[in-house]
Amino acid sequence: MGHYEVLGVTPDASMTEIKKAYLQAARDAHPDFHTESEVARLSAEDRMREINAAWSVLGDVDERSRYDRQRLRAERGQRPSGGFQASTTAGQTFRPFDDSDDDEDPFDERDDRPITDSSLPRWFQLMPAALIVGGFVSLAIGALVGILEVVTLGLIAMVFGGLSFMIAPIIAVGMAARHERRS
Question: In terms of CATH architecture, what is 3-75?
Answer without folding.
Answer: Orthogonal Bundle (1.10)
